[in-house]
Every structure is written in C-alpha cells, then in structure tokens.
Amino acid sequence: MPIIVNLDVMMAVRKMSSQELAEKIGITTANLSILKTGKAKAVRFSTLEKICEILDCQPGDILEFRK
Q: Under a CB-based contact definition with an 8 Å cutoff, are residues 8 and 36 in contact?
C-alpha cells in the first residue's frame, strides 16, 4: 500500500500511549490500532483533525505517500 501511516512515530515523539490518544480523540483503542497499522480503508477528516490537534502536528507528519 503506497500510503504509509506514521502515527506510532508521532505518538512516540509526543510520549503518548494508544489508550490516552484514543480517549482524547474519542475513538476506541481498537479503531486507533487499525489506523496505526495502516489497515484502515479510510480516515475521517474530523478524526485526522483531532489527532493533529492532540499531537500538535500536521497531516503530512502522520500520512506519507511512497511509490
């Protein structure tokens, strides 16, 4: 899959656990795990916005395109 999800990297940089981030953005830890592993088929902009707000980052810090 050419879209790489670097959410785990940003969480490590910010020293935030999956459970803490999931609670702050209002999703389950299971759904956050699906996002982190890149198995999600889509992500809502509202969810991406909350993630970026909590982690103080840009969408490009989380999502990457590779050929």
A: yes
Q: What is the pLDDT along the chain (67 residues), one digit of tens a residue?
A: 699 999 999 999 999 999 999 999 999 999 999 999 999 999 999 999 999 999 999 999 999 999 8
For tokens 């999502």, the residue is 63
Place of tokens 């609670």: 23
- Using left for φ > 0, alpha for ψ between -120 and 50, and beta otherwise, residue 2 falls in alpha
Q: What is the pTM of this model?
A: 0.90
Q: Which two tokens stand for residue 60?
A: 């490009």
Query: Cα dist. 34→37, 61 in Å?
Result: 5, 18
